[in-house]
């Protein structure tokens, strides 16, 4: 897309607060984007060729949604710390190996999508974020769910298609967790602790493609309590 086409997008964004410049073959964020820092609420830069994000991103202090899906990013800058109003961050389909420490300060985050990256460890930076509802870390290289999940406030956690073989002892203490997706990992049945089924708020857990058959969950202590929550959830849906 040429400069003329982008100019029209900027003019529209100055009125709506929404800038969509996806699939424009951009290798860097155009400087004109930062002239919209007083109005921009939603920025869609997906399906471009961005490999580095500039520190000027910190100028977009009113941003609520940032979509960086399908670029060539290997890291995110700590300057994101200034995006205090950010609610939705999508960095799926990049090459990111770790999430920035500054995420722990973005208290308005509600949804983080980081699927299909190069993450090797569960990002503890998101622990303590009490507004975070959805965390998608599927299709990465994560090997364990670490201890500390009593500070995980998400409602839905997607860790499918990783390399997880260990689950921390306190996952059942995640105060709001209801949906847990663990498909296609390296889990043995022993890693599904009775406390996870019995004492958590989880009503939906998916474990297809691990080192046991999903139907074997029914043999575990705590399965009856889990089944009751699942049934109650289904009744509310209909």
Automatic annotation (TrEMBL):
Keyword Cell division among record annotations: no
Record keywords: Leucine-rich repeat, Repeat
Keyword Repeat in annotation: yes
GO terms under cellular component: cytoplasm
Entry-linked InterPro entries: Leu-rich_rpt (IPR001611), Leu-rich_rpt_typical-subtyp (IPR003591), LRR_dom_sf (IPR032675), LRR_domain-containing (IPR050216)
Pfam families: LRR_1, LRR_8
Entries under PROSITE patterns matching the protein: LRR
Source species, domain of life: Eukaryota
Alphabetized PANTHER family for the sequence: PTHR48051, RAS SUPPRESSOR PROTEIN 1
Protein name, UniProt field: Leucine-rich repeat-containing protein 57
Gene responsible for this protein: 101741815
């Amino acid at each position: 897309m040429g400069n003329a086409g982008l100019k029209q997008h900027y003019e529209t964004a100055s009125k709506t607060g929404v800038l969509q410049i996806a699939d424009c073959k951009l290798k860097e964020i155009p400087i004109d984007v930062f002239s919209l820092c007083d109005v921009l609420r939603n920025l869609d830069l997906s399906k471009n060729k961005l490999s580095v994000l500039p520190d000027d991103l910190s100028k977009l202090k009113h941003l609520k949604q940032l979509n960086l899906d399908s670029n060539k990013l290997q890291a995110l800058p700590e300057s994101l710390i200034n995006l205090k109003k950010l609610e939705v961050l999508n960095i799926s389909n990049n090459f990111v190996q770790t999430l920035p420490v500054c995420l722990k300060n973005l208290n308005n985050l509600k949804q983080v999508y980081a699927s299909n990256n190069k993450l090797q460890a569960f990002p503890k930076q998101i622990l303590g974020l009490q507004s975070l509802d959805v965390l998608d870390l599927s299709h990465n290289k994560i090997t364990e769910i670490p201890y500390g999940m009593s500070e995980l406030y998400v409602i839905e956690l997607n860790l499918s298609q990783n390399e997880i073989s260990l689950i921390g002892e306190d996952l059942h203490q995640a105060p709001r967790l209801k949906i847990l997706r663990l498909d296609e990992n390296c889990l043995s049945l022993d890693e599904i602790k009775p406390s996870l089924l019995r004492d958590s708020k989880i009503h939906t857990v998916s474990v297809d493609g691990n080192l046991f058959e999903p139907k074997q969950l029914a043999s575990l202590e705590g399965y009856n309590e889990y089944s009751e929550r699942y049934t109650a959830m289904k009744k509310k849906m209909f």
